[in-house]
Design goal:
The structure holds two protein chains of two kinds. Chain A is mainly alpha-helical. Chain A contains three helices and two strands; from the N terminus they run αααββ. Chain A has a domain of 39 residues: Histone, subunit A (Orthogonal Bundle), CATH 1.10.20. In chain A, 33% of the residues lie in helices and 4% in strands. Chain A has a two-stranded antiparallel ribbon. In chain A, α1 packs across α2. The longest helix of chain A is centred in the first third of the chain and has 18 residues. By secondary structure, chain B is α/β, with parallel strands linked by helices. Chain B has a single domain, classed as Amidase signature (AS) domain (Amidase signature (AS) enzymes). Helix content of chain B is 35%, strand content 16%. Chain B is built from twelve helices and twelve strands. An eight-stranded mixed β-sheet of chain B has the order 5-7-6-11-12-10-8-9. In chain B, strands 1-2 form a two-stranded parallel ribbon. In chain B, α6 packs across α8. Classes of the chains: A mainly alpha, B alpha/beta.
Protein backbone atom coordinates (compact mmCIF):
# COMPACT_ATOMS: atom_id res chain seq x y z
CA UNK A 1 0.00 0.00 0.00
CA UNK A 2 2.63 2.57 1.13
CA UNK A 3 0.32 5.52 0.87
CA UNK A 4 -3.42 6.11 0.87
CA UNK A 5 -4.93 8.07 -2.02
CA UNK A 6 -6.00 11.66 -1.49
CA UNK A 7 -9.57 10.63 -2.30
CA UNK A 8 -9.48 7.97 0.41
CA UNK A 9 -8.11 10.46 2.96
CA UNK A 10 -10.88 12.90 2.07
CA UNK A 11 -13.51 10.18 2.42
CA UNK A 12 -12.25 9.18 5.88
CA UNK A 13 -11.79 12.79 7.06
CA UNK A 14 -15.37 13.54 6.09
CA UNK A 15 -16.64 10.48 7.99
CA UNK A 16 -14.53 11.55 11.00
CA UNK A 17 -15.78 15.15 10.75
CA UNK A 18 -12.27 16.58 10.69
CA UNK A 19 -11.31 19.32 8.26
CA UNK A 20 -7.79 18.78 6.93
CA UNK A 21 -5.76 21.26 4.90
CA UNK A 22 -3.79 20.13 1.84
CA UNK A 23 -0.56 19.70 3.79
CA UNK A 24 -2.27 17.62 6.48
CA UNK A 25 -3.92 15.43 3.82
CA UNK A 26 -0.56 14.74 2.21
CA UNK A 27 1.08 13.91 5.56
CA UNK A 28 -1.86 11.78 6.73
CA UNK A 29 -1.77 9.77 3.47
CA UNK A 30 1.80 8.62 3.99
CA UNK A 31 1.62 8.24 7.79
CA UNK A 32 -1.56 6.16 7.73
CA UNK A 33 -0.18 4.17 4.81
CA UNK A 34 2.90 3.26 6.84
CA UNK A 35 0.85 2.24 9.89
CA UNK A 36 -1.54 0.17 7.73
CA UNK A 37 1.44 -1.57 6.10
CA UNK A 38 2.65 -2.51 9.57
CA UNK A 39 -0.83 -3.66 10.61
CA UNK A 40 -1.04 -5.88 7.53
CA UNK A 41 1.09 -8.41 9.41
CA UNK A 42 -2.13 -9.52 11.14
CA UNK A 43 -2.98 -11.28 7.86
CA UNK A 44 -0.27 -13.83 8.70
CA UNK A 45 -2.27 -15.04 11.70
CA UNK A 46 -4.68 -17.90 11.15
CA UNK A 47 -7.85 -16.98 13.04
CA UNK A 48 -10.20 -19.60 11.56
CA UNK A 49 -12.75 -20.59 14.15
CA UNK A 50 -11.48 -18.06 16.74
CA UNK A 51 -14.19 -16.18 18.63
CA UNK A 52 -13.39 -12.44 18.73
CA UNK A 53 -12.98 -10.91 22.19
CA UNK A 54 -16.15 -9.26 23.46
CA UNK A 55 -15.14 -8.59 27.07
CA UNK A 56 -11.70 -9.43 28.33
CA UNK A 57 -12.49 -10.85 31.79
CA UNK A 58 -15.66 -12.51 30.50
CA UNK A 59 -18.43 -10.22 31.77
CA UNK A 60 -21.65 -10.28 29.82
CA UNK A 61 -24.96 -8.43 29.72
CA UNK A 62 -24.79 -6.09 32.71
CA UNK A 63 -28.40 -5.08 33.15
CA UNK A 64 -30.36 -3.09 35.69
CA UNK A 65 -34.08 -3.09 36.36
CA UNK A 66 -36.00 -0.99 33.85
CA UNK A 67 -37.22 1.46 36.48
CA UNK A 68 -36.59 5.19 36.76
CA UNK A 69 -33.98 6.05 39.37
CA UNK A 70 -35.43 7.88 42.36
CA UNK A 71 -32.26 9.84 42.93
CA UNK A 72 -28.99 10.11 41.04
CA UNK A 73 -26.74 7.15 41.76
CA UNK A 74 -24.50 7.75 44.76
CA UNK A 75 -25.14 11.47 44.33
CA UNK A 76 -22.64 11.46 41.47
CA UNK A 77 -24.71 12.54 38.52
CA UNK A 78 -24.59 16.26 37.80
CA UNK A 79 -27.90 18.08 37.45
CA UNK A 80 -29.26 18.94 34.02
CA UNK A 81 -29.17 22.73 34.36
CA UNK A 82 -25.48 22.58 35.23
CA UNK A 83 -24.76 20.44 32.19
CA UNK A 84 -26.73 22.70 29.84
CA UNK A 85 -24.73 25.69 31.10
CA UNK A 86 -21.56 23.93 29.95
CA UNK A 87 -22.69 24.07 26.34
CA UNK A 88 -20.99 26.80 24.28
CA UNK A 89 -24.43 28.09 23.35
CA UNK A 90 -27.72 27.63 25.20
CA UNK A 91 -31.13 29.24 25.55
CA UNK A 92 -33.90 28.69 28.14
CA UNK A 93 -32.20 25.58 29.52
CA UNK A 94 -31.83 24.08 26.02
CA UNK A 95 -28.58 23.44 24.17
CA UNK A 96 -28.51 25.60 21.05
CA UNK A 97 -27.05 24.19 17.83
CA UNK A 98 -26.19 25.68 14.46
CA UNK A 99 -28.59 25.42 11.54
CA UNK A 100 -28.79 21.83 10.34
CA UNK A 101 -29.69 22.80 6.75
CA UNK A 102 -27.66 25.14 4.57
CA UNK A 103 -29.05 28.28 3.00
CA UNK B 1 -1.58 14.70 41.99
CA UNK B 2 -4.19 13.59 39.50
CA UNK B 3 -3.73 12.96 35.80
CA UNK B 4 -5.66 15.64 33.95
CA UNK B 5 -8.05 13.17 32.29
CA UNK B 6 -9.72 12.34 35.63
CA UNK B 7 -12.52 14.67 36.74
CA UNK B 8 -12.43 16.65 40.00
CA UNK B 9 -15.64 18.64 40.44
CA UNK B 10 -15.18 22.36 39.88
CA UNK B 11 -11.63 22.00 38.54
CA UNK B 12 -10.45 22.26 34.96
CA UNK B 13 -9.98 18.96 33.18
CA UNK B 14 -8.24 19.43 29.83
CA UNK B 15 -6.97 15.95 28.86
CA UNK B 16 -4.05 18.10 27.58
CA UNK B 17 -6.20 19.04 24.58
CA UNK B 18 -7.12 22.45 23.24
CA UNK B 19 -10.63 21.17 22.68
CA UNK B 20 -11.10 20.93 26.48
CA UNK B 21 -8.84 23.88 27.36
CA UNK B 22 -11.53 25.59 29.45
CA UNK B 23 -13.63 22.59 30.44
CA UNK B 24 -14.62 22.56 34.13
CA UNK B 25 -15.53 19.12 35.48
CA UNK B 26 -19.18 19.02 36.61
CA UNK B 27 -18.75 16.03 38.93
CA UNK B 28 -16.11 13.89 40.68
CA UNK B 29 -14.75 10.71 39.15
CA UNK B 30 -15.49 7.74 41.41
CA UNK B 31 -11.79 7.36 42.24
CA UNK B 32 -11.81 11.01 43.37
CA UNK B 33 -14.87 10.58 45.61
CA UNK B 34 -13.23 7.48 47.09
CA UNK B 35 -10.01 9.39 47.80
CA UNK B 36 -11.95 12.36 49.22
CA UNK B 37 -13.76 10.02 51.61
CA UNK B 38 -10.36 8.69 52.70
CA UNK B 39 -9.24 12.26 53.45
CA UNK B 40 -6.93 12.78 50.47
CA UNK B 41 -5.63 16.27 49.67
CA UNK B 42 -5.35 17.10 45.95
CA UNK B 43 -2.30 19.16 45.10
CA UNK B 44 -2.93 19.55 41.39
CA UNK B 45 -3.60 18.03 38.00
CA UNK B 46 -0.79 16.56 35.92
CA UNK B 47 0.22 16.79 32.28
CA UNK B 48 -0.32 13.92 29.82
CA UNK B 49 -0.24 13.14 26.14
CA UNK B 50 -3.39 14.59 24.59
CA UNK B 51 -6.31 12.30 25.53
CA UNK B 52 -3.66 9.87 26.86
CA UNK B 53 -2.38 9.06 23.36
CA UNK B 54 1.38 8.71 23.42
CA UNK B 55 4.34 6.84 24.86
CA UNK B 56 6.57 9.81 25.70
CA UNK B 57 4.43 12.66 27.04
CA UNK B 58 5.34 14.82 24.05
CA UNK B 59 1.85 14.89 22.52
CA UNK B 60 0.44 17.32 25.12
CA UNK B 61 -1.11 20.47 23.61
CA UNK B 62 0.56 22.37 26.47
CA UNK B 63 4.14 21.10 26.05
CA UNK B 64 5.89 17.95 27.28
CA UNK B 65 6.55 16.99 30.91
CA UNK B 66 10.32 16.79 31.43
CA UNK B 67 12.05 13.81 32.99
CA UNK B 68 13.26 14.80 36.51
CA UNK B 69 16.41 12.68 35.99
CA UNK B 70 17.41 14.62 32.86
CA UNK B 71 15.43 17.62 31.67
CA UNK B 72 16.37 17.02 28.04
CA UNK B 73 14.56 13.67 28.10
CA UNK B 74 10.94 12.51 27.97
CA UNK B 75 9.14 11.62 31.19
CA UNK B 76 7.27 8.88 29.34
CA UNK B 77 3.61 8.74 28.51
CA UNK B 78 0.94 9.09 28.67
CA UNK B 79 0.77 9.69 32.47
CA UNK B 80 3.90 11.85 32.10
CA UNK B 81 3.20 14.51 34.71
CA UNK B 82 1.98 11.99 37.30
CA UNK B 83 5.21 9.96 37.18
CA UNK B 84 7.43 13.05 36.94
CA UNK B 85 5.69 14.66 39.94
CA UNK B 86 6.19 11.59 42.15
CA UNK B 87 9.81 11.18 41.00
CA UNK B 88 10.53 14.86 41.68
CA UNK B 89 9.04 14.49 45.18
CA UNK B 90 6.21 16.95 44.49
CA UNK B 91 3.63 14.46 45.77
CA UNK B 92 3.47 11.23 47.76
CA UNK B 93 1.45 9.51 45.05
CA UNK B 94 -0.41 10.24 41.85
CA UNK B 95 -3.12 8.66 39.77
CA UNK B 96 -2.57 7.76 36.14
CA UNK B 97 -4.47 5.82 33.52
CA UNK B 98 -3.11 2.95 31.45
CA UNK B 99 -4.48 1.88 28.06
CA UNK B 100 -1.32 0.36 26.55
CA UNK B 101 1.36 1.17 29.13
CA UNK B 102 0.54 4.74 30.13
CA UNK B 103 1.12 4.16 33.87
CA UNK B 104 4.03 1.73 33.58
CA UNK B 105 6.04 3.50 30.86
CA UNK B 106 6.48 6.86 32.63
CA UNK B 107 6.95 5.05 35.96
CA UNK B 108 9.83 3.05 34.45
CA UNK B 109 11.45 6.10 32.84
CA UNK B 110 11.05 8.27 35.95
CA UNK B 111 12.14 5.56 38.43
CA UNK B 112 8.92 5.16 40.41
CA UNK B 113 6.36 2.40 41.02
CA UNK B 114 3.36 2.20 38.66
CA UNK B 115 0.48 -0.25 38.93
CA UNK B 116 -1.98 -1.02 36.14
CA UNK B 117 -4.83 -2.98 37.75
CA UNK B 118 -6.92 -5.70 36.08
CA UNK B 119 -9.43 -4.38 33.56
CA UNK B 120 -12.54 -3.54 35.61
CA UNK B 121 -10.99 -3.49 39.10
CA UNK B 122 -11.10 0.32 39.35
CA UNK B 123 -14.12 2.32 38.19
CA UNK B 124 -13.59 4.51 35.13
CA UNK B 125 -16.58 6.74 35.87
CA UNK B 126 -15.19 10.24 35.43
CA UNK B 127 -12.14 9.17 33.44
CA UNK B 128 -12.10 10.79 30.00
CA UNK B 129 -12.42 7.73 27.78
CA UNK B 130 -9.77 6.79 25.23
CA UNK B 131 -10.18 3.09 24.37
CA UNK B 132 -12.90 1.68 26.58
CA UNK B 133 -12.04 -2.00 26.24
CA UNK B 134 -8.53 -1.26 27.58
CA UNK B 135 -8.55 1.87 29.81
CA UNK B 136 -7.80 1.43 33.51
CA UNK B 137 -6.91 3.86 36.34
CA UNK B 138 -4.08 3.05 38.73
CA UNK B 139 -1.59 4.51 41.23
CA UNK B 140 1.93 5.86 40.67
CA UNK B 141 3.89 5.83 43.93
CA UNK B 142 7.35 5.81 45.51
CA UNK B 143 6.99 2.37 47.06
CA UNK B 144 5.08 -0.83 46.36
CA UNK B 145 3.39 -0.58 49.77
CA UNK B 146 2.02 2.87 48.83
CA UNK B 147 0.63 1.42 45.60
CA UNK B 148 -1.20 -1.24 47.65
CA UNK B 149 -2.59 1.41 50.04
CA UNK B 150 -3.89 3.61 47.20
CA UNK B 151 -5.34 0.56 45.41
CA UNK B 152 -7.25 -0.39 48.58
CA UNK B 153 -8.98 3.01 48.37
CA UNK B 154 -9.76 3.21 44.66
CA UNK B 155 -10.63 -0.43 43.79
CA UNK B 156 -14.16 -1.79 43.87
CA UNK B 157 -17.54 -2.04 42.22
CA UNK B 158 -19.23 1.14 41.05
CA UNK B 159 -22.80 1.21 39.73
CA UNK B 160 -21.75 4.16 37.53
CA UNK B 161 -19.30 1.92 35.61
CA UNK B 162 -21.09 -1.21 34.44
CA UNK B 163 -17.76 -2.79 33.46
CA UNK B 164 -16.45 -2.56 37.03
CA UNK B 165 -15.84 -5.84 38.83
CA UNK B 166 -18.41 -6.90 41.41
CA UNK B 167 -16.67 -9.24 43.82
CA UNK B 168 -14.89 -9.60 47.15
CA UNK B 169 -11.58 -7.74 47.24
CA UNK B 170 -8.64 -8.51 49.51
CA UNK B 171 -6.62 -6.05 51.58
CA UNK B 172 -3.80 -5.45 49.12
CA UNK B 173 -1.30 -4.67 51.89
CA UNK B 174 -1.89 -7.96 53.73
CA UNK B 175 0.50 -10.25 51.80
CA UNK B 176 3.27 -7.82 50.90
CA UNK B 177 5.79 -9.37 53.26
CA UNK B 178 4.98 -12.97 52.44
CA UNK B 179 8.19 -14.54 51.03
CA UNK B 180 8.34 -15.39 47.32
CA UNK B 181 10.04 -18.73 48.05
CA UNK B 182 8.49 -21.46 45.89
CA UNK B 183 6.58 -19.09 43.58
CA UNK B 184 6.65 -20.05 39.92
CA UNK B 185 7.84 -17.24 37.70
CA UNK B 186 7.73 -17.30 33.89
CA UNK B 187 10.11 -15.32 31.67
CA UNK B 188 8.87 -15.03 28.06
CA UNK B 189 11.74 -15.27 25.59
CA UNK B 190 9.95 -12.81 23.26
CA UNK B 191 10.57 -10.06 25.86
CA UNK B 192 14.30 -10.30 25.11
CA UNK B 193 14.27 -9.95 21.33
CA UNK B 194 16.47 -7.62 19.33
CA UNK B 195 14.70 -4.35 20.19
CA UNK B 196 15.81 -4.57 23.84
CA UNK B 197 18.67 -2.29 24.91
CA UNK B 198 21.73 -4.18 26.21
CA UNK B 199 21.99 -2.33 29.53
CA UNK B 200 18.25 -2.69 30.17
CA UNK B 201 18.61 -6.39 29.40
CA UNK B 202 21.42 -6.71 31.99
CA UNK B 203 19.38 -5.05 34.73
CA UNK B 204 16.34 -7.18 33.88
CA UNK B 205 18.44 -10.37 34.05
CA UNK B 206 19.85 -9.21 37.40
CA UNK B 207 16.32 -8.64 38.73
CA UNK B 208 15.29 -12.14 37.64
CA UNK B 209 18.42 -13.59 39.30
CA UNK B 210 17.50 -11.70 42.47
CA UNK B 211 14.04 -13.29 42.55
CA UNK B 212 15.66 -16.69 42.00
CA UNK B 213 18.02 -16.05 44.94
CA UNK B 214 14.94 -15.30 47.07
CA UNK B 215 13.73 -18.81 46.35
CA UNK B 216 11.41 -18.31 43.37
CA UNK B 217 11.41 -20.91 40.62
CA UNK B 218 12.26 -19.35 37.23
CA UNK B 219 11.49 -20.86 33.80
CA UNK B 220 11.77 -19.51 30.29
CA UNK B 221 8.47 -19.65 28.39
CA UNK B 222 7.11 -18.45 25.06
CA UNK B 223 4.29 -16.04 24.17
CA UNK B 224 4.44 -16.43 20.38
CA UNK B 225 1.49 -14.14 19.61
CA UNK B 226 3.22 -11.17 21.28
CA UNK B 227 4.76 -10.29 17.91
CA UNK B 228 1.29 -9.32 16.69
CA UNK B 229 0.32 -7.35 19.80
CA UNK B 230 1.23 -3.84 18.61
CA UNK B 231 -0.61 -4.24 15.29
CA UNK B 232 -3.65 -5.60 17.16
CA UNK B 233 -3.42 -2.90 19.79
CA UNK B 234 -3.36 0.01 17.34
CA UNK B 235 -6.37 -1.21 15.38
CA UNK B 236 -8.43 -1.69 18.55
CA UNK B 237 -7.30 1.57 20.15
CA UNK B 238 -7.79 3.69 17.05
CA UNK B 239 -11.21 2.19 16.37
CA UNK B 240 -12.40 2.83 19.91
CA UNK B 241 -10.80 6.29 19.90
CA UNK B 242 -12.68 7.25 16.73
CA UNK B 243 -15.96 6.34 18.42
CA UNK B 244 -15.18 7.79 21.88
CA UNK B 245 -13.87 11.11 20.57
CA UNK B 246 -16.88 11.68 18.30
CA UNK B 247 -18.40 13.42 21.34
CA UNK B 248 -16.09 16.42 20.94
CA UNK B 249 -18.37 18.20 18.53
CA UNK B 250 -18.34 21.73 19.95
CA UNK B 251 -22.00 21.51 20.92
CA UNK B 252 -22.41 20.14 24.42
CA UNK B 253 -19.19 21.31 26.05
CA UNK B 254 -15.62 22.30 25.28
CA UNK B 255 -14.23 24.42 22.49
CA UNK B 256 -16.54 25.47 19.68
CA UNK B 257 -15.72 27.08 16.35
CA UNK B 258 -18.19 29.92 16.67
CA UNK B 259 -17.70 31.44 13.24
CA UNK B 260 -19.07 28.36 11.50
CA UNK B 261 -22.36 28.88 9.70
CA UNK B 262 -23.81 25.39 9.47
CA UNK B 263 -23.78 22.46 11.86
CA UNK B 264 -21.48 20.43 9.62
CA UNK B 265 -18.99 23.31 9.36
CA UNK B 266 -19.07 23.68 13.14
CA UNK B 267 -18.11 20.00 13.56
CA UNK B 268 -15.38 20.15 10.93
CA UNK B 269 -13.81 23.35 12.21
CA UNK B 270 -14.12 22.67 15.93
CA UNK B 271 -12.31 19.37 15.51
CA UNK B 272 -9.74 20.79 13.08
CA UNK B 273 -8.81 23.56 15.56
CA UNK B 274 -9.18 21.64 18.80
CA UNK B 275 -7.49 18.29 18.22
CA UNK B 276 -3.75 17.64 17.93
CA UNK B 277 -1.92 15.72 15.21
CA UNK B 278 -1.66 12.33 16.95
CA UNK B 279 -5.30 12.44 18.03
CA UNK B 280 -6.38 13.22 14.46
CA UNK B 281 -4.16 10.42 13.17
CA UNK B 282 -5.78 7.85 15.46
CA UNK B 283 -9.31 9.07 14.76
CA UNK B 284 -8.56 8.80 11.03
CA UNK B 285 -7.02 5.32 11.37
CA UNK B 286 -9.95 4.12 13.47
CA UNK B 287 -12.55 5.64 11.16
CA UNK B 288 -10.83 3.93 8.22
CA UNK B 289 -10.67 0.59 10.04
CA UNK B 290 -14.36 0.70 10.98
CA UNK B 291 -15.63 2.05 7.66
CA UNK B 292 -17.73 -0.03 5.28
CA UNK B 293 -15.77 -2.87 3.72
CA UNK B 294 -12.85 -2.77 6.16
CA UNK B 295 -14.46 -3.82 9.46
CA UNK B 296 -13.85 -7.57 9.02
CA UNK B 297 -10.30 -7.13 7.76
CA UNK B 298 -9.20 -4.84 10.58
CA UNK B 299 -11.33 -4.55 13.75
CA UNK B 300 -12.82 -8.04 13.72
CA UNK B 301 -9.48 -9.58 12.77
CA UNK B 302 -7.77 -7.67 15.60
CA UNK B 303 -10.35 -8.86 18.16
CA UNK B 304 -9.67 -12.46 17.03
CA UNK B 305 -5.91 -12.07 17.30
CA UNK B 306 -6.55 -10.50 20.70
CA UNK B 307 -8.31 -13.72 21.75
CA UNK B 308 -5.18 -15.65 20.74
CA UNK B 309 -2.92 -13.27 22.70
CA UNK B 310 -5.14 -13.76 25.75
CA UNK B 311 -4.94 -17.54 25.26
CA UNK B 312 -1.12 -17.34 25.20
CA UNK B 313 -1.14 -15.68 28.62
CA UNK B 314 -3.74 -18.14 29.97
CA UNK B 315 -1.57 -21.07 28.93
CA UNK B 316 1.37 -19.64 30.91
CA UNK B 317 -0.78 -18.82 33.95
CA UNK B 318 -1.98 -22.43 34.16
CA UNK B 319 1.50 -23.30 35.41
CA UNK B 320 2.98 -20.04 36.71
CA UNK B 321 2.09 -17.42 39.32
CA UNK B 322 3.54 -14.36 37.59
CA UNK B 323 5.30 -13.35 34.36
CA UNK B 324 8.27 -10.97 34.52
CA UNK B 325 10.36 -8.95 32.08
CA UNK B 326 11.36 -5.41 31.16
CA UNK B 327 8.76 -2.62 31.26
CA UNK B 328 10.28 -0.60 28.42
CA UNK B 329 12.78 -1.64 25.71
CA UNK B 330 15.12 1.26 26.55
CA UNK B 331 15.58 4.09 29.07
CA UNK B 332 14.02 7.57 28.60
CA UNK B 333 14.78 8.92 25.11
CA UNK B 334 15.69 12.53 24.38
CA UNK B 335 12.74 14.80 23.62
CA UNK B 336 12.03 14.41 19.90
CA UNK B 337 14.22 11.32 19.57
CA UNK B 338 11.43 8.85 18.73
CA UNK B 339 10.35 10.88 15.70
CA UNK B 340 7.52 9.27 13.74
CA UNK B 341 4.50 7.75 15.41
CA UNK B 342 5.24 4.15 14.42
CA UNK B 343 8.50 4.06 16.44
CA UNK B 344 6.64 5.56 19.40
CA UNK B 345 4.00 2.83 19.03
CA UNK B 346 6.70 0.15 19.17
CA UNK B 347 7.87 1.42 22.60
CA UNK B 348 4.70 -0.24 23.99
CA UNK B 349 5.86 -3.71 22.93
CA UNK B 350 6.06 -5.15 26.50
CA UNK B 351 3.20 -3.18 28.03
CA UNK B 352 0.36 -3.19 25.46
CA UNK B 353 -0.07 -7.02 25.34
CA UNK B 354 -0.94 -6.87 29.07
CA UNK B 355 -3.83 -4.47 28.37
CA UNK B 356 -5.02 -6.57 25.44
CA UNK B 357 -5.31 -9.52 27.84
CA UNK B 358 -6.86 -7.33 30.59
CA UNK B 359 -4.19 -8.40 33.10
CA UNK B 360 -2.72 -6.48 36.07
CA UNK B 361 0.95 -5.46 35.95
CA UNK B 362 3.34 -3.36 38.00
CA UNK B 363 6.55 -1.59 37.04
CA UNK B 364 9.10 -1.34 39.84
CA UNK B 365 12.53 0.35 39.62
CA UNK B 366 15.40 -2.13 39.09
CA UNK B 367 18.43 0.12 38.71
CA UNK B 368 19.94 2.80 36.52
CA UNK B 369 21.77 2.81 33.21
CA UNK B 370 24.17 5.42 31.96
CA UNK B 371 23.28 6.98 28.61
CA UNK B 372 25.38 9.90 27.26
CA UNK B 373 26.47 10.83 30.77
CA UNK B 374 22.97 10.73 32.27
CA UNK B 375 21.96 8.19 34.89
CA UNK B 376 18.50 6.97 33.87
CA UNK B 377 16.15 4.65 35.78
CA UNK B 378 14.91 1.32 34.41
CA UNK B 379 11.69 -0.48 35.31
CA UNK B 380 11.06 -4.20 35.88
CA UNK B 381 7.59 -5.45 34.99
CA UNK B 382 5.64 -8.09 36.93
CA UNK B 383 2.42 -9.35 35.30
CA UNK B 384 -0.27 -11.34 37.12
CA UNK B 385 -3.50 -13.25 36.57
CA UNK B 386 -6.82 -11.43 36.38
CA UNK B 387 -7.63 -9.88 39.80
CA UNK B 388 -4.41 -11.25 41.31
CA UNK B 389 -2.98 -7.81 42.19
CA UNK B 390 -2.07 -9.06 45.68
CA UNK B 391 0.41 -11.50 44.10
CA UNK B 392 2.22 -9.01 41.86
CA UNK B 393 2.39 -6.53 44.74
CA UNK B 394 3.91 -9.26 46.93
CA UNK B 395 6.59 -10.10 44.34
CA UNK B 396 7.28 -6.41 43.70
CA UNK B 397 7.54 -5.63 47.42
CA UNK B 398 9.93 -8.54 48.04
CA UNK B 399 12.06 -7.40 45.10
CA UNK B 400 12.05 -3.77 46.28
CA UNK B 401 13.11 -4.80 49.82
CA UNK B 402 15.93 -6.97 48.46
CA UNK B 403 17.46 -3.91 46.77
CA UNK B 404 17.63 -1.78 49.92
Amino acid sequence: MGKLSKKEIERVASLARIKLDEEEKEKMASELGAVLDYIDKLKEVNTDGVEPIAHITGMENILRKDEPMKKPLEGQAADAAKLVKMAPDSKDNFVKVKAVFGE
Amino acid sequence: MIKDNILIEGEKCTAASKILENYIAPYDATVISNLKQAGAVFLGKTNLDEFAMGATGENSAFGPALNPHDHTRAAGGSSSGSAAAVAADLAVYALGSDTGGSIRAPSAWCGVVGLKPTYGLVSRHGLIAMASSLDQIGPITKTVEDAAIVLNTIAGYDPMDSTSHNGELPDYTANLNKPVKGLKIAVPKEFFSKGLDGQVNNLTQAAIAKLESLGAHIDQVSLPMINFAIATYYIIVSSEVSANLARYDGIRYGRSANKAKSLLDAYLETRAEGLGAEVKRRIMLGTYALSAGYYDAYYLKAQKVRALIKRDFENIFEKYDVIVGPTMPYAAPKLGELGDSLSAYLADIYTAPVNLAGLPAISVPCGQVEVDGSKLPVGFQIIGKHFDEARILQVAHNFEKSRQ
